[in-house]
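input
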Amino acid sequence: MKTRIITAATLALGLAGPAAAQNAAVSGVYVGAGVGATLLNETINRRSPTGFFGQGNGASFSYNTGFTASGALGWGFGNGVRVELEGYVRRPGLQNVTLFGNGSFSGGLVSRNGTAQIYGFMANVYYDPDLSALGSFFRYVQPYIGAGLGFAYTEFNNINVDAFGSLRTSLSGTGRTLGYQLIAGAAVPLDDFVPGLALTAEYRYFGAGAPKLQVTTSTIPNNNQPSFRLANLDRNVSPNIGSHNVTVGFRYAFNTPQSVPVAAPVALGFAFGQPGPQPASRNYAVFFPLSNTALDSAARGTVTQAVQMARSSGASGLDVVGSADGAPNANNRALAQRRAQIVVAELVRQGVPRSAISVSAVGGTGPTDPQSRRVDITLR
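output
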């Protein structure tokens, strides 16, 4: 089984090989979905034997590989951190259930029918580290880690076993417990096909509190005798819930810009002030942190200097060009465009008419270089 899980993960990553790099962090609203395989851990628990025939409270549960699916709605902060609300369902294949006799692991009643299902909601937090400086592989694959906490609803149904030709023991129940999960995955953007779309492959370890399931024994009805329950044989069992899950899926970020129109140089018909002396500098560079679009105090100060110089020199307008380092793909172009738009918004906030600003973007510009994580402002 472990071999099949590893193979599934390898194939999922292999599909992502030719795609573009993911150096830009997710920003804003996104949705995701995935399907794959789930395998619950075998569980054995035992309590003191009681009741008729010495049947104790102990039981063992073993499983085949089953099916899992999930959907999520999330928000990326643009700095590698994401949060999301996920709904999931997991349907492991129930191999057999053994209700121990005489408190022994070797005896007991064995059932090979029935179903098991786990579903619920999780609140997850992720971190997408930018590892592109470590090699070209990380310019094409974005690894991430995460953890979640939420609720698990566990159902076991139709688990029956007949004994002695006259008794039927049934196990069923629903448990509502806390659940948690640990997540490791990788995403490969498909921006060259659909901007904002990424292929994902994940491994998740999921755990939840043990549900309390009821075991009842009744006589098997026949033509002469109706069924009646042997209440003195009632008992509970609590299987531990822990599973290994491998999924592949897609994630789509809604606010990935497809393009930013480049304004052609035109006479903008305004001046910030009366014509004055030529400025000492017509070029200003606003720098950004790695994979980020936030303006810090130094960056805002640079924008303010450009605005003040434009006013004092009577500049006719401003040209804004966003840049990003890393591979020259759609994702890094989108990052450069977002940076340019952030600077334009700050210029407008400081009183520059939007019609006086032309905007464009280039990205990525090649090797990893902090000097390329910038927006250039040029006075006209």
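quick obs: Residues 283-379 form a domain with the 60s Ribosomal Protein L30; Chain: A; fold (CATH 3.30.1330.60).
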